[in-house]
Amino acid sequence: MAKQTAPEKKKQYKAEKREKAMIEGILEGSPDAIGVVIIRIGCGCRKMAAIAKDGEPASKVIIYRDGATSICDKCKEDDGAFMRVTESFIHWVEPEPSDKKKKEIELKVLGSAPTN
Length: 116
Known about the structure:
The protein has helices spanning 17-28, 73-78, 99-110; strands spanning 35-41, 45-51, 62-65, 85-92. By secondary structure, it is of the alpha+beta class. The protein has one domain (17-110). It has a four-stranded antiparallel β-sheet, with helices on both faces. The longest helix is centred in the N-terminal third of the chain and has 12 residues, at 17-28. The protein is globular, with a radius of gyration of 16 Å. The relative contact order is 0.18.
């Protein structure tokens, strides 16, 4: 008899403590936002933007680096290119949309390629 394996679980990303203040600031300036996209880049820089319920931007994209006065030279050059992204996910605002709606928005905003 063949051994059954459990289905693979998608890794659940969560906002880090140091990202939460930035998330709150973005949400404060974007009252229609239902979440904030967080994109972590291999160099340590991060890109964030609020998203509306239709998956469209609800704020400008902010790129920053913890503890630095400026983003790194590589991000200045290529604006945090997709090829250097290590993790990307959406931090949802309560109440969260349905799972179906979240998947639709994630596909629209992040695409279908895994980034882990």
